[in-house]
Structure prediction request, 141 residues.
Amino acid sequence: MGSKKIEVSRLGIIASTNIRAQLGIRRMSNRELARQMGRSESYVRARVNNEKEWTLNDLGIISNIWGISPSQLVVPMVDSSDTPAALADTRRTELEETARRESDLAAATLKALEDDPMQLAANEDPDKMRYVESGDPDAAA
Prediction:
């Protein structure tokens, strides 16, 4: 009876992605990383290719070799929601929604002014209609 294959977790995939990126940045091969880790090349290759999980000990060793924090190996370098295209789409949607709300508000304001020009007056003075009817600013006083 064969053992059930356990898929690599999302965290493991993030770690592999970050390790591959660091390997590229440092122009380091899997073989060189394996040598510095004290592991076999096949051990490192299986993990870099998302065939097996990295252990916490592996991540600690790698971060020490590269002089970085272990958290840099498990935090996504670029979240898909942070890509420039996603941010631009989000910003465009926000701007379109704001423009629609402002347009609706302007239309409602114009409608209210047509019905009663003094409806939007800030002054809550009950005598304001006397001013509207007479046109004399002192008439309301």
